[in-house]
Amino acid sequence: MHETTDRVADGVATTDAAAAADTIPDDGIVPMSGLSAGPKDVAHELAASNRDRSLTVPASADAGFVADTELPNADALDLRYPFSAWPNLKRAVNEGRVDFVDDHLSVVEQSVARGHFGDPDVAVVEALAVGEDWLVPTTAVGAVPAFVAAADAVIVEVNEALPLELQRLHDTWTPSPPPRDPLSLSDPGERLGDQFVRFEPDKLAAVVRTENDPVPYPFREPTDAEAAIADNVVDFLADELVDNRAFRERFTFEVGIGSLGNEITERIGDLDFGDRRVDYYGEVAQDGLLDLLEAGTLSAASATALVLGEDGVDRLLDRPELVAENACTRSMSVSNDPGLIRAFGVVAINTAVEVDVYGHTNSSHVQGSQLLQGIGGSGDFARNSLLSTMVLPSTAKDGAVSRIVPMASHVDHPDHDVDVVVTEHGVADLRGLTPDERFETVVEQCADPDFRQELRRYGERAARGGGHMPHDLPTAFGMHGE
Fold first, then answer.
1. Residue 478: is its pLDDT beyond 90?
2. For residue 329, is it left (φ>0), alpha (ψ between -120 and 50) or beta?
3. Which domain holds residue 312?
4. Per-residue pLDDT tens over the stretch 79-112
5. Cα(405)–Cα(354) distance, integer angstroms
6. What is the DSSP string of 254-300?
7. Cα separation of 434 and 358, whole Å?
8. Angle at the Cα of 116 (from 73 to 113), degrees rounded to 5?
C-alpha cells in the first residue's frame, strides 16, 4: 500500500472553517462524512453563522455529534438522511422541526448518487490527509467515496489529532452503479482498493486544518438484564458451535452498535472456537472488538467505521497500529452488501426496541411513532445473515412495560428475518417453527414472567378468530402502555 506522509500536500491552500462554511449555499444539499468521522469545525460554523440556513444533509449514518447537535439547535437543518444517533436531532425530528428519511445503510451511497435528494452541492469530509485530487478518511469510510463523487465541490477538514497511521485501516473501493457484476470478496480481510478517495482537482473547494479528538460513543456499563442477555447469547452460540455444521471451520459474526452490543462483542471472546477461523464482518467496530483484536481471536475484522467509547478512543490514540494492522474499514456499499453477508455466512446480532409474539421486530421507533435512531444496518444483516438474532431486555420503564408485545407497533424486521430472540430470561430459537409454536416459544422463553399470563390470554382471544397468524386487532396494542 502506498502511504502518504503529508497531512496537506504541497500546493494545496488552506483556509479557516468560517470561510469554508460561507461557501456552502444556505439551502444546499451537503453530504457529510459521519459515524465517528463527522466534520466538526465546519459543521460548527454552519450552525453558528447568522445566515438563514435550511440544509439537506445526507450522511454516513449520523453526521457526527457536532452536526447532529448544533445544526438542529440553530434551526439550520431542513432534512437529514438516513440515521439519527444523537438526542438533539432525534428531538427535532420527533417535534417536526427537521424532516427525516430512514433507510438501510447498504443503499445510502446509491440513493445519493442517483439524486434522490437532489444534486449534492458540497460534500464536507473529515480526513487524515488531503492532496489536490485525493483525500484519506479518518476513522470511517462510510459513504464518503460516493458523496465525493456526486458532489459538485468538496470541503476537507484535515484532523491532525488523529494518527496518520490510521490510513492503513481503509479500503475505499466502492462499486460502480448498477448494472454491475456481483461484488467479489474472497474473505472479510481481502482488500479491493487502497486508502485514497480520488476526485477531479477542480472539486476541491476548501481545506481546513483542525485538531479534534473523536467524540466518544456514550457506552455505559451494562445493566443486570443486559449482562444476563449477553450470558444467554454466548451460551446459545457455544451450543451452535457444537451443533451447527455451518460453523465447523469458520465463524463470522456481526454485532450492532450500542452498550448491549458492545457487551456481547466482549463476551464472544470467551467462546471456545478451537481451531476455527473467526472473522468479524459488520457495520461498526466498537470497543469490544478491540479486545478481540488484541487477544488475537480474529483472523480478520471488516467494518465501515470505528465507533468507540471513551476507553476505545484512548486506546486508538495510544496504539493506532492495533486497528491499522488488523482491521479494515470499507464503504457502506461493501460492508453492508447483502450478497457478501450471505456469502460469508454471517451470524447477525442486533438490538430491538420490541419483539412481538411471532418474532416481528421493531428496532427504530418507540411506541411506533417516536424515532429512536433508524433502521441503520440491522435490516441488511437480519435479512441476509445465516443466523439472525435479536436481543433486548424483556421490559422497559423499570418493569412497567413489556417489550415482548402482542403486535409490534412498527416493523423493521418481519418474522421471516428473525431466527432467534434473546432476553435476560432466555433464548427463543424460532427456526422451523409455525406461528403457533413461535408464539409459545417467545412468550415462554423471552417474556418477563409478570407478563406471560397476559400475553397468553391475548393469544387465546386472538385464536378465536382463526387464521394462520391470529391477532385480536382491537386489543393488539393494549400492552404497549403509556
1. no
2. beta
3. 224-477
4. 999 999 999 999 999 999 999 999 999 999 999 9
5. 7
6. EE-SSHHHHHHHHHHTTS--TT-EEEEESSEE-HHHHHHHHHT--SE
7. 9
8. 100
Q: How far apart are CA 353 and CA 480, in angstroms?
A: 12
Do both 332 and 470 map to the same domain? yes
Whether 169 and 241 share a structural domain: no
Among 349, 329, 341, smallest CA distance to 271 is for 349
To which H or E segment does residue 473 belong? none
CA distance 49 to 70: 11
End residue of a domain, out of 144, 178, 210: 210
Can you tell me whether residue 66 is helix, strand or coil? Answer: helix
Amino acid at 395: T
In total, how many domains does the chain have?
Answer: 2
Assigned C-alpha cell, 51: 445566515
Whole-number Å distance between alpha carbons of 19 and 301? 39
Nearest to 445 by CA among 430, 432, 433, 463: 430
pLDDT of the residue at 1: 62
Residues 261 and 193 in one domain: no
Are 301 and 328 a contacting pair, CB within 8 Å?
yes
CATH code, domain with 335: 3.40.1080.10
Task: Note whether 385 and 290 are within 8 A (CB).
Answer: no
Q: Is residue 12 domain-resident?
A: no
Count CB-CB contacts under 10 A for residue 223.
Answer: 14
